Amino acid sequence: MVWAKTYYDKIWERIGDRKNKFDDITNNLKSQKKFPDIKSLNLGEGREITAGVLFVDIVSFTERSRQGTPEQLLFTLDIFLSEMASIVNDWGGTIEKFTGDGLMAIFDTSQTTIAGMAKDIIDVATTMRYSIDGPINSFLNSRGIEPIKYRIGFDGVQIIVGRLGIRGDNYPVAIGWASNIASKLQES
Fold first, then answer.
1. Comparing C-alpha atoms, which of 57, 90, 79, 61 is closest to residue 135?
2. Alpha carbon separation from 164 to 22, 43, 91, 169, 175 (Å, rounded)
3. pLDDT tens-digit readout, 94-142
4. Crossing angle of the two packed helices 70-90 and 114-131, in degrees rounded to 10
């Protein structure tokens, strides 16, 4: 695409339109207990929920990708991400996103208290740890693939779950202190 003044003007117009919608969206932000059905939200719209956020990923995956074959990396990611997603689903969580070599999950308080949610997230992290340290790494080792080292971080508080992007290409996002802290804790 060639950059032209008309295209540059179009960018300013789009941003101006979004800026004008922002006040309406934030003034109409609704609280709810349950993770919202993303399809029920308009683009740029969000809901405030009390939830726990969990991150899990493979440590030093970039370095690992230099050493393994593409088939080994695909196999490792498939077994890791599939099992982590299954655990999240088994415990009633919602996968917010896959992050390449990890995932972010949301656990709302609609079926429990905040203390119950915190216990559940600890149980999820413990189950993930058992699954990786036991069956996953054992299976990888039997195939001559280096065992996975991983990080898990979680936190809980008010977050905003929204739908961002453009028409036809949009995704759910979780924004808030808990998302940032959980991400940082898993980096430790």
1. 79
2. 12, 6, 26, 9, 11
3. 888 898 899 989 888 777 777 888 888 999 999 999 999 999 999 999 9
4. 150
